[in-house]
Design a protein that fits this description.
- With 204 residues, the chain is mostly helical.
- The chain has one domain (11-194).
- It has helices at residues 10-27, 31-43, 46-74, 77-94, 104-107, 113-126, 130-142, 145-166, 168-173, 176-196.
- Helix 1 (10-27) runs antiparallel to helix 7 (130-142), helix 1 packs parallel to helix 8 (145-166) and helix 3 runs antiparallel to helix 8 (145-166).
- The protein is globular.
- Residues 1-6 and 200-204 have low confidence and may be disordered.
- Belongs to the GDT1 family.
- Pfam families: GDT1 (PF01169).
Length: 204
Amino acid sequence: MRALSGRINPHTMEAFLISTSVVALAEMGDKTQLLSLVLAARFRKPWPIVAGIFVATLVNHALAGAVGAWITSYLGENAMRWILGLSFIAMAIWMLIPDKLDEDEVSGHSRWGVFGTTLVAFFLAEMGDKTQIATVMLAAKYNAYLWVVAGTTLGMMLANAPVVWLGDKLVKRVPIRLVHVVSAVIFLVLGVLALFLPGTGVLA
């Protein structure tokens, strides 16, 4: 299986780069990025927060990527083409809907220390979130499990780690609406390519 191969080729590099960039963009202004801001403001201990985000993301996206790989192995190419195409288009629409955060997601786990609170709160917040669903779809699209999980995890860290140190000063400088529109366009393009140009990476 190509996902387990250590050889770097254009397909796996594309999977890694697309996964990194798409998730980094999708995460801007997302619920889990807002959670990073809340955690940083509450605890003011960036290193255990960043460590908790990394571990939670890695575990969550490893599971999501496994689901994507499993879907690929059980569905035919034509069915996968339609599911991925329509899912990416739905994700493009979802990207234009602002996220909100319930701060109870943090307070309910604060007794477990900074790292434990971050780990549990971030893992639970990521369940069913845009970036988790994107990881499932990207893993199914590229059939390159390790590269997709590595890319989506890196994308999450690129979006969230700076926020932990710089706080809302960084977020306020980023045109979140524009970023979401760019992300939506990328997902839309991926959906159209999956539907009408099945040879462009899907199940390749």
